[in-house]
Amino acid sequence: MSTDGLIVVDKPGGMTSHDVVARIRRLARTRRVGHGGTLDPMATGVLVIGVGRATRLLTYVIGAGKSYTATIRLGQTTVTDDAEGEVTAAVPAGGADDEAIRAALSALTGEIDQVPSAVSAIKINGQRAYKRVRDGETVELAARRVTVSRLALLAVRRDVPDTPDVVDLDVDVTCSSGTYIRAIARDVGRALGVGGHLTALRRTAVGGFTLAESVTLAGLEERAPDVVGLPLAAAADRFFPRREASADEARTLSHGGPLGPAGITGPYAVFDPSGGLVAIVSEREGRARAEIVLAPA
Fold first, then answer.
1. CA distance 200 to 82
2. What is the pTM of this model?
3. 227: how many CB neighbours lie within 10 A of its CB?
4. Fewest CB within 10 angstroms: 26, 108, 147, 168, which?
5. Catalytic annotation on 113?
6. Distance CA 88, CA 101 (A)
């Protein structure tokens, strides 16, 4: 049974990312569990969980690009920019034609300066923005540079049951870490003059980890406590470029010493002759130095 590694979970709606972590702590019988990028309670899909020493890889997972499918509702503005918040304004959206919708989406593609949703986990003077909003404060967050590499319109639905005067857009998004899909929904609606918010969000990929390899919480219950899907070494091999080290090099690196450069760009994983993961390394000033050492003590 591997106790160190990653699990690609298909998070259900109605749970926080921390709820999922708490469930897996129980199943894996360890407190050393973390997640690689928060999903809102209403969102579903890929949530990468680290167990044991693999929790140290999560900082890299959090920074990876992500993909989503989402539904944007035009014609209603909410306080949270999603369906969980109170509707604060309603404007009939039927006049927004497909051409105008595509133009609004196109303007939000590429490198953009995005103002995060006020109801976000960003801290302001040590307190989460969403907590300040719920306490009645008006929160203004600074714009952040993000990259939306794909924002494809999959469908325009104008006859939404029981909700006249709205238009629903199904979209497919690939973006950099730190991009708020709720903010895209808000900004599309704002550009069209009718307001908008997110009604559905499903994360389909984090880095190279996709829904195709994900497992539900029910599936994890069935195989507990052997819940780790990708053992530590296999997870690192999937996520990073690979460098093979000699026994002497592995020993040096595991004790914090540097190696000669290999000319590999960005962080990479170094493995010992037996295939064990030694460290995540980056090169600077002509030396390869460990960012984190993962060889067992």
1. 8
2. 0.91
3. 26
4. 26
5. no
6. 22
| 2 pLDDT more than 80 | no
Q: What is the pLDDT of residues 169-202, one digit of tens each?
A: 999 999 999 999 999 999 999 999 999 999 999 9
Kindly tell me if the per-residue pLDDT of 160 is higher than 80: yes
- Number of Cβ within 10 Å of residue 288's Cβ equals 22
Q: How many CB atoms lie within 10 A of CB 201?
A: 23
Question: d(Cα 266, Cα 279) in Å, to the nearest integer?
Answer: 14
In angstroms, the CA 269 to CA 280 distance is: 5
Tokens representing 141? 């967050």
Question: What's the whole-number mean pLDDT along residues 84-99?
Answer: 94
Strand 87-90 and strand 76-78: the pairing is: antiparallel
Average pLDDT, the chain: 93
In the block, residue with structure tokens 């989460």: 128
β-strand partners of 69: 172, 202
Cβ neighbors of 128 (< 8 A, separation 6 or more) are 120, 121, 122
Q: Which of 45, 63, 46, 38 has its CA nearest to residue 6?
A: 46
**Catalytic residue chosen out of the listed positions 4, 10, 40, 168:** 40
Tokens 């006049």 correspond to 95
